[in-house]
From TrEMBL:
Protein name: Tyrosine--tRNA ligase
Residue ranges annotated for the Tyrosine--tRNA ligase SYY-like C-terminal domain, each copy included: 334-413
Subcellular location: Cytoplasm
GO molecular function: tyrosine-tRNA ligase activity
Catalytic activity: tRNA(Tyr) + L-tyrosine + ATP = L-tyrosyl-tRNA(Tyr) + AMP + diphosphate + H(+)
Protein residues bound to ATP: 239
Keywords, sorted A to Z: Aminoacyl-tRNA synthetase, ATP-binding, Cytoplasm, Ligase, Nucleotide-binding, Protein biosynthesis, RNA-binding
Family annotation (Gene3D superfamilies): HUPs (3.40.50.620), RNA-binding S4 domain (3.10.290.10), Tyrosyl-Transfer RNA Synthetase (1.10.240.10)
Primary location class: cytoplasm
Short sequence motif 'KMSKS' region: positions: 236-240
Enzyme class: ligase
RNA sequence: GGGGGAAUGUCCCGAGCGGCAAAGGGGGCGGACUGUAAAUCCGCUGGCUAUGCCUUCGUAGGUUCGAGUCCUACUUCCCCCA
């Protein structure tokens, strides 16, 4: 299947967002028959979703753009269990309160990307806690559980890792795929949802839902997954020294977010532009073709466009400007990430090592000490050579801050107050 | 049901005669070179109020001056027999 005739699948295909489709012809035909409904499920296991999730969210965006109705499903119920897919250990169990907090926090990003409301193609926010938590155990087993074969469940790649690693897979977690399968059927009943999308690691879970619908006498459902994004040198995307690249500004600043994409490898620029931004394909082709150091221009466009989608145009421009001042002019950009320090701590002299820890640039004074030896720390652009040096009010620049740098790229301003 | 084996540095894999903060990789971070890229080379890769102190080898006890290393029980997993 190489040529799609529906707007939706054509766009996804052109942008390299399709990894696998359960029935390409069938889905293509369906998408041409007026407004359809599709969903993506999001775990509530953290206070924010990350760039891995941004891809599926982008698919929902294109789904809506091409005249359909997207559903974002919050895993209020499934997060009580935890998805064991491709994990080598059990997740820690979340409390009901943690899940509720996470959902509230996660929701904020969705409304930037999708248009919610009551219109025919307005997005719907659903929560599987609404039906999963009410289920009666035995009734559920008889109605749904009987359609699942344990033999088959054990054959899924998603649990292989766990089994091969000789780690226990609890019955609790084993139920996850059943719940997710049931979600699909339930969303079909409630909203006529016919398609579930997700990352390629969700294929098994989604297919279970497609299967379950069959067995329960429901309509034909479809599954579409995106490729797992890796960088050209093979690393998984979205990991930094400090953890994942989150979409919520309070856990991962727009500036850091912009920087993350600014540092994209040359070989990835074209692909990332297609996957993450909404720029026209001919414009992307032009940018990706830039050679040598000119490709840096394309990286800036990439960074600004994605940041604008997630954090808004204004925040994106600000991040770009801060970066320009810092890296291209070598000037002090006053809106670099800033950490406030009580005046009382600086006045008597604050140890350089603990200053870097306070700024969040290094995790411990031990690490700071090592970095001094390696020449990786700088105060106001001067390399720190003495680990016992003290920072005082005399180190404040004319802007009243101290600029701390870790490596060439990470900068934080310390502001006494 | 019986017998044998495994679990190591809270990223992963993996050595480890009773003196061990524990070999070696991978990954990650920093430096050099560059273009805030890749590749390459070099260094680092438990914590701290630091010539010392504290916490780490599945969990809990025990033997010992001293235990990752020996003993006992437990947990999880693998293999063989039934």
């Amino acid at each position: 299947m190489t040529t799609y005739t529906s707007d939706f699948l054509r766009v996804l295909d052109e942008r390299g967002l399709i990894h696998q489709v359960s029935d390409p012809e069938g889905l293509d035909a369906l998408c041409r028959q007026g407004t359809q409904t599709a969903y993506v499920g999001y775990d509530a296991t953290a206070t924010s979703i990350h760039i891995g999730n941004l891809i599926s969210l982008t698919m929902l965006y294109w789904f809506q753009e091409t005249g359909h109705r997207p559903i974002t499903l919050m895993g209020g119920g499934t997060s009580m269990v935890g998805d064991p897919s491709f994990r080598d250990d059990q997740r820690k169990l979340l409390t009901v309160e943690e899940i509720a907090t996470n959902i509230e926090s996660i929701k904020r990003v969705f409304s930037r990307i999708l248009r919610y409301g009551d219109g025919p193609t307005d997005a719907i926010m659903a929560n599987n806690a609404d039906w999963l938590l009410k289920l009666n155990y035995v009734a559920f087993l008889r109605e749904v559980g009987r359609h699942f074969s344990v033999n088959r469940m054990l054959s899924f790649d998603s649990v292989k890792l766990r089994l091969d690693r000789e780690q226990s897979l609890s019955f609790l977690e084993f139920n996850y795929m059943i719940m997710q399968g049931y979600d699909f059927v339930e969303l079909n009943r409630r909203y006529g949802c016919r398609l579930q999308m997700g990352g390629s690691d969700q294929w098994g879970n989604i297919i279970n839902g497609v299967d379950l619908s069959h067995r329960m006498g429901g309509p034909q459902l479809y599954c579409l997954t995106t490729p797992l994004l890796t960088t050209a040198s093979g690393a998984k995307m979205g990991k930094t020294a400090n953890g994942a690249v989150w979409l919520n500004a309070d856990v991962f600043s727009p500036y850091d977010f912009w920087q993350y994409f600014r540092n994209t490898e040359d070989a990835d620029v074209g692909r990332f532009l297609k996957v993450f931004t909404r720029l026209p394909l001919d414009e992307i082709a032009r940018l990706a073709a830039l050679g040598g150091s000119e490709i840096n221009e394309a990286k800036k466009v990439l960074a600004t466009e994605i940041t604008a989608i997630v954090h808004g145009r204004e925040a994106a421009e600000a991040a770009a400007e801060t970066a320009r001042k810092t890296f291209e002019e070598g000037a002090l950009a006053t809106d670099l990430p800033t950490v406030a320090v009580p005046r009382g701590e600086i006045e008597p002299g604050l140890g350089v090592l603990s200053a870097f820890v306070k700024a969040g640039l290094v995790p411990s004074t031990g690490e700071a000490r090592r970095q001094v030896k390696a020449g990786g720390l700088r105060v106001n652009d001067a390399v720190v050579t003495d680990e016992r040096a003290l920072l005082g009010l005399g180190d404040l620049t004319s802007d009243g801050v101290v600029k701390l740098s870790f490596g060439k790229k990470k900068h934080v301003l310390l502001r006494p107050e």
